[in-house]
Amino acid sequence: MLTNVDLKEYTTFGVSALAKQFATFSNEDEARALSKNNTEELLILGGGSNLLLTQDFNGLVLKNEITGIRCVEQNDTSVLLKVGAGEVWHDFVLYTIEKGYYGIENMSLIPGSVGASPMQNIGAYGVEIKDVFEKLDALEIETGEVHTFSNEACAFGYRESVFKRALKGKYIITYVYFRLSLIKNLSTHYGAIEYELNKQGITSPTSKDVSDAVIFIRSSKLPNPKDLGNAGSFFKNPIVPIETYNKIKATYQEAPSYPVSETTVKVPAGWLIETAGWKGKQMGACGVHKNQALVLVNYGDATGNEIYELSTAIIKDVNQKFGVTLEREVNII
After folding, report:
1. Which among 260, 256, 297, 259 is positioned nearest to 275, based on CA atoms?
2. Please, what is the Cα angle at 275 between 269 and 276, to 5 degrees?
3. Distance between CA atoms of residues 230 and 289, nearest Å
4. What is the rounded CA–CA span in Å between residue 87 and residue 131?
């Protein structure tokens, strides 16, 4: 157990914040022992890619380092993989591509750990975790018991799960099980994937081709956290009533939208932020990325509070201009 540990190196935003106590665990027994008699406030840390620390953490930070990828079931059409929650997500994606498993190639280069993927129901280019998720094992902090949660029990929504709402802070995800296809089944029609493949003259893509295209697209738009502190998309794409969207479209004919239901549509948060004039804007040591308005960045020595205040200013301005209230996707501590 360490004390007064700076968490700057453990989060992709790279802001300084001290943890009163800090420890790592690499299996369920260690996680159980560390959390069992803990009386401090508890924070479970994975890859730190969806977290903004606005203050020191006056409690215990436990970093999940449970690793391992194991095939637990296979038939003629699919494979079930049990994956340690501490595995790096992108490394896991590359592993599945190498093995010839299909289903998560569109989610290449998403930062973070495997354990965070169901918490957020991460997704990209038309694919979400819920599409390939079978179940997960999670340690109940209060009792030390391991419980299994099915796809349905996780209550997945858009960048949502039960672990971000009703069960927030009550469990430590230890293993995640993914059902991947052994039959070639690629999704290339979302976003710029098809364009990139056509540009390269690829007419019958492999999963690696799709992954490479996604990596190229993401790298051209999104800053590498190793070079410029960020947490990827900071805001969720808002789902609004069609009436609200029609009001926006009356002024901005080019306003994009994606149908959600008969009465609602999803409007890209990036478009709203960029149209409001925030793309590339800098406030002190933080700002909005020049290539992607959804991404807030730390130019080197920004505090978590400065980044939070920037996000608040963006939310207020977008609401005033469009009548839409943006919601932060990043967890705020």
Report:
1. 256
2. 90
3. 9
4. 20
Residue in the structure block whose two tokens are 């999963």: 207
Residues 57 and 74 placed together within one structural domain of the fold: no
The residue among 74, 70, 77, 67 whose CA lies nearest residue 27 is 67
Q: What is the pLDDT along the chain (333 residues), one digit of tens a residue?
A: 899 999 999 999 999 999 999 999 999 999 999 998 888 899 999 999 999 999 999 999 999 999 999 999 999 999 999 999 999 999 999 999 999 999 999 999 999 999 999 999 999 998 999 999 999 999 999 999 999 999 999 999 988 999 998 999 999 999 999 999 999 999 998 878 999 999 999 999 999 999 999 999 999 888 999 899 999 999 999 999 999 999 999 999 999 999 999 999 999 999 999 999 999 999 999 999 999 999 999 998 999 999 999 999 999 999 999 999 999 999 999
| Residue 224 belongs to some domain of the structure | no
- Domain total of the chain: 3
**Position 198 in a domain:** no
Tell me the β-bridge partners of 45: 63
Query: What CATH number does the domain containing 23 carry?
Result: 3.30.43.10
H, E, C per residue of 113-169: ECCHHHHHCCEECCEEHHHCEEEEEEEECCCCCEEEEECHHHCCECCECHHHCCCCC
Catalytic residue numbers, as ranges: 159, 233, 329
The model's pTM is 0.90
